[in-house]
Write a structure and sequence with these properties.
With 254 residues, this protein is an alpha/beta fold. The protein contains ten helices and eleven strands. The structure holds adenosine-5'-triphosphate (ATP) and magnesium ion (MG).
């Protein structure tokens, strides 16, 4: 396909013990777009997403074969700097996992871990920039000392996205980021993703097909660990090449 690719897998296979969870997955994730990974529960969406910043390394008894290239470099290489990789390829989870700390400390946390910016003014500028990116600055600028857990769930999820963005990643992975949110908050987060994809490469896992259709430029359909189809979202949803994809998006299973 005709796009600048940010991530590419080549014959990616992943085993949990004897269980073959990802089978010969070849996918190209375009830069500065939203890519949705769709498919029924248990098909391997989260597993695939976690490959992109090697979060799976934290799981025991796992084996990964094949290549995972970020900007053409294989991140499976033993000398990959995992701390840098996970900063560069940030992740947002299902439930907003804000820390039981102030809004300010939530945002400063990663800067501290990664030893970025020590000067107070620079830190404040980065926090402002992060909150502006997720549309929270005007609401929260005078409340930075408030505990982040007092925010609404939607605000908390925005804060989690800001916490990733403040580390200046190139890729943002989101695993069902709206599943804890109501429909209105969900739409607002989707709007935010549409804005952010002008600057970042975003990959969202969702089993909400309407969401995938609304928010993504490209979509990949996974089924039983295999990438069945990948293409422009419009094509995948209106004119799927594979019968399995058609069955899935028309609600015949999953
Ligand atoms: N740590 C693990 N050990 C063993 N098997 C696992 C592990 N994590 C996931 N699996 C299995 O791998 C398969 C893919 O799981 P994964 O969580 O990636 O699916 P998913 O598509 O994200 O599902 P869901 O939509 O329910 O979140 C499933 O069969 C799951 O049971
Ligand atoms: Mg999952």
């Amino acid at each position: 396909m005709n796009f600048a690719k940010k991530i590419e897998t080549q014959n990616l296979n992943l085993f949990y013990g004897d269980f073959h969870a990802l089978q010969d997955v070849n996918i190209e994730i375009p830069d500065r777009s939203v890519t949705a990974i769709i498919g029924p529960s248990g098909c391997g969406k989260s597993t695939l997403l976690r490959c992109f910043n090697r979060m799976n390394d934290l799981t025991e008894n796992i084996r990964v074969e094949g290549k995972i290239l970020l900007d053409g470099r294989d991140i499976m290489h033993p000398e990959t700097d995992l701390i840098f990789l996970r900063r560069n390829v940030g992740m947002v989870f299902q439930r907003p996992n804000v820390f039981d700390l102030s809004i300010y400390e939530n945002l400063r946390f990663g800067l501290r871990i990664h030893r970025m910016l020590k000067n107070k003014d620079e830190i404040m500028a980065a926090i402002q920039n992060g909150l502006e990116h997720v549309g929270l600055w005007s609401t929260l600028r005078d409340k930075l000392k408030k505990n982040a857990r007092t925010l609404t769930l939607e605000q908390q999820q925005r804060l989690c996205i800001a916490r990733v963005l403040i580390l200046k990643p190139q890729v943002v992975l989101l695993d069902e980021p709206c599943s804890a949110l109501d429909p209105i908050a969900t739409l607002k987060i989707e709007e935010l993703l549409r804005v952010l994809c002008k600057e970042y490469s975003m990959v969202i896992v969702t089993h909400n097909m309407q969401q995938a259709a609304r928010v993504s430029d490209y979509a990949g359909f996974l089924y039983l660990g295999k990438l069945i189809e990948f293409g422009q979202t419009n094509q995948v949803f209106t004119n799927p090449r594979e019968k399995l994809t058609e069955n899935y998006i028309t609600g015949h299973f999953g």
